[in-house]
Amino acid sequence: MVLLPTDRMDSLFSPRCVWVNGPIIVGAGPSGLAVGASLREQGVPFVVLEREDCIASLWQKRTYDRLKLHLPKQFCELPRMPFPADYPEYPTRRQFIEYLENYAATFDVKPEFGSTVQSTRYDETSGLWRVHSSSAGAGEMEYIGRWLVVATGENAENVVPDIPGLAGFAGKVTHVSDYKSGASYKGQSVLVVGCGNSGMEVSLDLCDHGALPSMVVRDAVHVLPREVCGRSTFELATMLMAWFPLWFVDKIMVFFSWLILGNLAGFGIRRPAIGPLTLKNKYGRTPVLDTGAMAKIRSGEITVVPGVARFTKNSAELTDGTALEIDAVVMATGYKSNVPQWLQTKDGFFGKDGYPTTAFPNGWKGQSGLYSVGFTRRGLSGASADAVRIAKDLGYVWREETKTTKRAAGACHRRCISVIF
Asked: Which of 40, 52, 171, 272 has a CA that sits 20 to 30 A from residue 217's CA?
């Protein structure tokens, strides 16, 4: 319990303030839901603030129709709840959304929807976090509590590179977050800027719908088969890392890629000098898991092109000096964290890129009751692991404080009795 002078209490608890008797969780994606569910099992109260009108808004509003989980479902489960047994190994977008909705209902996680966090700061005088938010219904609000859990994740905001001439391009320009299906692009020449998992799958989807996609591959990238001999490549790598060093497993992964997908250099795809797992661990660059795009590249149905130097009204001028006539552009250029836009801290727990400065698995806890979840660059499994750690830590603190409060109340009660009698 924090005791404050009367004037301090008045300034803290204005009519538009809400005291949260537990952690304030910002974000109702899979990470925020995982923390909420884990806290529920610990008996710790909480509030979840979500700027959109639904849980997992990235999955519900900013993903394409054909999307499936890239990893087998057992690696994507949230704490305490497996996927239904009848789900396929790689659940669809709709199935994953249903899983999350059932998860939230099972653990009674009910976010405050439409609450956009504008700013958050730690009040050193009171030892409390002050979270200023706004919503269409409630207007300006301030949530006050001892603990803050940042769960807005790695994909909060779109990344759109500043390419010369893009504003003057006459065709349709779409970020992958707004792309749903290639059906509306039938017969069009479409430039897909980006060659990550989204860029590869969007190019494949465009091809399947009768469009003519060209995919920009500017930098070296690892492309791995999604499965090796019927087993998930990720699962195989996980098993091998239990027995062999990382550098050796990297070599095995590259060998399988060469064996199954062939030499990709002839198609304009260069491999990085650093192995795929090392690259992921050190720099967060996820290897591409091929779901069929490479076959279309080999057949010439998807054209690989180098970087874009500039756009003109109807074309893209490439870095090799050639010009490509195009009708539309899809920016598969990824996302970024938005934490620096709203979180004000002085301890350096979050860097300028919006990620914890401490590497996994120790980046889940900061100072003064600050926690983070969903920033591990290890997908849903990393978020789940951090959620469990946070809930256990807060659960312990909560129980200890509850014991202290009860002891204090008991002592007060005994003193009162002695005075009365």
From this structure: 171
Sign of CA dihedral 382, 388, 392, 393: positive
Whether residue 145 contacts residue 21, with contact meaning beta carbons closer than 8 Å, is answered with yes
Alpha-carbon distance of 392 to 274, in angstroms, equals 36
Question: What is the pLDDT at residue 361?
Answer: 80
Alpha helices in 107-196 (DSSP H): none
Q: How many CA atoms lie within 13 A of 375 on its CB side?
A: 27
Q: Which residues of 368-387 are buried (b: 16+ CB within 10 A; e: fewer)?
A: bbbbbbbbbbbbbbbbbbbb
Q: 């009910």: which residue's tokens? A: 110
| Amino acid letter for position 347 | D
Closest CA to 148 of 392, 336, 368, 348: 368
Q: Which long-range contacts (CB under 8 A, 24 or more apart) does 315-319 make?
A: 316/191, 319/218
398 or 223, which is more confident: 223
pLDDT at 403: 65
| Direct distance between the N- and C-terminal alpha carbons of the chain, in angstroms, rounded to an integer | 29
pLDDT band at 65, cuts 50/70/90?
Answer: very high
User: Is-contact 75 235, C-beta < 8 A?
Assistant: yes
Helix (H) or strand (E) holding 96: helix 93-106
- Nearest of 347, 369, 344 to residue 127 by alpha carbon: 369
Instruction: Give the tens place of pLDDT for each residue, 345-402.
Output: 877 899 998 999 988 788 899 999 999 999 988 889 999 999 999 999 999 888 887 7
Please state at what angle helix 30-42 crosses helix 379-420, rounded to 10 degrees. Answer: 30
C-alpha to C-alpha distance for 335 and 340, rounded to whole angstroms: 14
* C-alpha to C-alpha distance for 383 and 399, rounded to whole angstroms: 24
The three-state secondary structure class of 318 is strand
Which backbone phi and psi does 174 adopt, to 5 degrees? Answer: -130, 135
- Could you write out the three-class secondary structure of 344-405? ECCCCCECCCCCECCCCCCCCECCCCEEECCCCCCHHHHHHHHHHHHHHHHHHHHHHHHHHH
Sign for the CA dihedral angle at 123, 129, 134, 137 comes to negative
Q: How far apart are CA 244 and CA 257, in angstroms?
A: 19
| CA pair distance 309, 316, nearest whole angstrom | 8
Q: DSSP assignment of 65-80, as one string?
A: TT-B-SS-GGGSPBTT
Q: What are the phi and psi torsion angles at 228 (to 5°)?
A: -125, 115
For residue 297, pLDDT over 60 is answered with yes
